[in-house]
Amino acid sequence: MNALPTTVTSALTLTGITKTYPGVKALDDVTVDVAAGRVHAVLGENGAGKSTLVGIAAGSVVPDAGIIGLGGRSYDRIQPREAREAGLAIVYQTPALAPSLSVVDAVMLLLPDSKRPSRRTASSWLADHFAALQLQIDPNAVVSSLSLREAHLVEIAAALASDPSVLVLDEPTEALGPEETAWLFDQVHALVERGVAIIYITHRIPEVIEIASDLSVLRDGRVVGRGQVADFTADQIVELIIGRSLETTFPDKAPLPKAGTVPALEVLELTGPGYERVSFAAHPGQIIGLAGVEGNGQRAVLRGIAGSGATGGKVLIGGEEISVRSLRAASNSGIAFLPGDRLGEAMFGKMSIRENTVAPALSLAMPFGFVNRRREYALTREGIAGLAVKTPHLEVPVSALSGGSQQKVLLARGRLGNPRVLLVEDPTQGVDAGARVEIYAFLRDMAASGVAVVVLSTDAVELEGLCDRVVVFSRGRVQASLSGDEVDERAITGAAVLSHETANVDVAKVARRRRRSPLAGEGQAAILLGLAVALSIVASFVSSAFLSPLSISQLLAASAVLILVGLAQLVVVITGGIDLSVGSVVALSAVIVSFFAQQDIGFFALGALLALLAGALVGLVNGLLVTRLSLPPVIATLVTSIAVLGIAQVLRPFPGGSADGGLLTTLGLAVAGIPIVLAIAVAVAVALWFVIQRTGPGRGLRAAGSDPVKANRMGVRVPATRLYAAITAGVLAAMAGLVVYSRSGIGDANAAQALTLTSVTAVVIAGASIFGGSGSALAVAAAGILLQTVTSALSFLSVGLSWQYWIQGAFVLFAAIVPITIALIRNDRARLGRLRAG
């Protein structure tokens, strides 16, 4: 990064920006100048380079060439946090909020340091900020429990709270309803009056005409047009975007059905969470639209037809009643449902176009249960025929496609299997003008083939142009059914916002969100400690010696080892990795210190320092292998583990290095019956808990493991965070090695290998997510004590070694299943809450 003084007076300048990806030149010498106090629309089809350009301005994308002028300085590259501190805030098309964080923690990461309140007042500050913006969102809710709409609103609120000089809005209204869009535009007007520069990216041309002052149009990574919005008509803007004349956007509508024609789809008195007694029909050749202010039940109705949440009523296809009591039953009856959240709900982002297209039609793709690649390719080409998916081949991961091409792959999936009903949620969300024409034609062709097509959209213009009939919802009931000439933008919007419906359908109730309790770690720790105490009491009934001072002292001292190795594993697991070198580092640490334990305590301290340095070095190697060479953590740490164990065995081919008796006595000291080593281990756990839960680096640690792409956009330096976590893990494992030596008084290279598995066990029992993003150091400490109690109790109960393994394994399995079951229950409740909210 080079920062130089600049005389640029504009709020943001991007000069000569070039960015190349393998096989694709995303941006080619692009220059854009954004003036303060104006709204500058950046337009283009999907894949034109818009998001790459603003990503470079925000620091989440590194340019190959060009200069970024921001805050009176010039940069050849900029970090996300640096851009934020310089006054730039960005609202991404896909909200950059790490799923495992609470809303308040996510917002704190998005704010500049100068605007961030103290940790103690953060929740109340954010609640006041939401209230001032008229947003009803719980600051302590977990981000993953929010709907896409709520996540967008949270990110917009965070951007407004940062008091930016430049605000980038990337497709901000795609998940918002008309009222929320009007609210956002009011916020934009207020910012413009204060001199804030706004970069506005959208595919909705009416929004550009309504709110923007200037525009720049990108096509194939180059600027093909710029100027003031007032100098262009809507048709001229569209022609600039797609590079050709757009003679018609919407295909011709279907003629009116003949009297007595049997509807292709008939919904009768359908009732469910957030809606009741909903009835409408779709005749062959027709497209039916569902409309209404967001949260009035229309979204829940669409999913009810698809088999999710309906509790009463009927659905008929071709005059025959079908079952919609489950998604599977509805699918087997011929209903194809295409959710609006493409990557989050509908498709598998890391899987190929081929695999995603044939996913719901596996019986066609592999009729005998075996993969038939030729058959899969044929079906995929049949599905995407006429949809112009922009891809070099069919093995490209869906996540690598533009939004328009992703939507086309999803539509191709809906075509396969000869569906009788096609339900499409937000069919053109995040889709450019050219792709919209192709999608509209596809939906009309599907309807003409006899398929009942039902479309849910928040765009009244889209509903007017595409649909033969529009059903408008209010408070969970059908407010109006418009057909023929009645289907126009004014009538649709008017029916939605001027409703006098007062019936009491439970749609206004805010769904209860899963909250991040500030005492979650303590609660989990208390439960585990309670189990340890209960098990100790049971063991004392069988053998009174179990609770003797000597036995308890040995149990607690041994627990210190398990606590430290569990903490070592935890810091890596939170980042989404795993460390298989923990046991080897423990062994190496014990071996190193064994060469310094025959002298006084000062000499031992020197050995302990060298052991900790060795642990840090191993962690550094692990971190570099993962972050610089991009090796999977399992492979990287397994290789390191083998190498470290080999070094330990070279240093101590046989157990040796007996400690001086006086030194062992010193290391084994206890205060009030509590071994010093346990007190140290618990103190480390408390300190680590505080860092993870109560500090900025801790938020970054959790964000990096929750979603590294979003974390990077939030300003977290993900590779550095993972590197520091690996080094910390090495140091903690080395500390465990010192405790092992203090208890045995001998250096043994083969004495600690089982601790790697034990460390993973402690993390699992403590309820940490093995996929990263969450975990409590206090719960891990309690898990270490519990595991050692189980081991000690089983030996006192005279249980054979083989049975000890069986019992411990069953216990771990139970401990792993419980949090998974709780998570499933929470997800079901969250899904039901979203249904209630429409």
From TrEMBL:
Q: Where are the transmembrane segments?
A: 525-546, 552-573, 603-626, 633-651, 663-692, 723-742, 754-771, 778-799, 805-825
Record-linked Pfam families: ABC_tran (PF00005), BPD_transp_2 (PF02653)
Where found? Cell membrane
Question: Which domain of life does the protein's organism represent?
Answer: Bacteria
Q: What are the residue boundaries of the ABC transporter domain, all occurrences included?
A: 12-245, 256-500
Mind listing the UniProt keywords for this protein, alphabetically?
ATP-binding, Cell membrane, Membrane, Nucleotide-binding, Repeat, Transmembrane, Transmembrane helix, Transport
How this chain sits in the membrane, per its record, is: Multi-pass membrane protein
Q: Which CDD domains match?
A: ABC_Carb_Monos_I (cd03216), ABC_Carb_Monos_II (cd03215), TM_PBP1_transp_AraH_like (cd06579)
Q: What SUPFAM superfamilies does the entry give?
A: P-loop containing nucleoside triphosphate hydrolases (SSF52540)
Chief localization: membrane
Cite the PANTHER family for this sequence. Answer: CARBOHYDRATE TRANSPORT ATP-BINDING PROTEIN MG119-RELATED, GALACTOFURANOSE TRANSPORTER ATP-BINDING PROTEIN YTFR
Q: What is this protein called?
A: ABC transporter domain-containing protein
What is the native source organism of this protein?
Answer: Microbacterium lacus
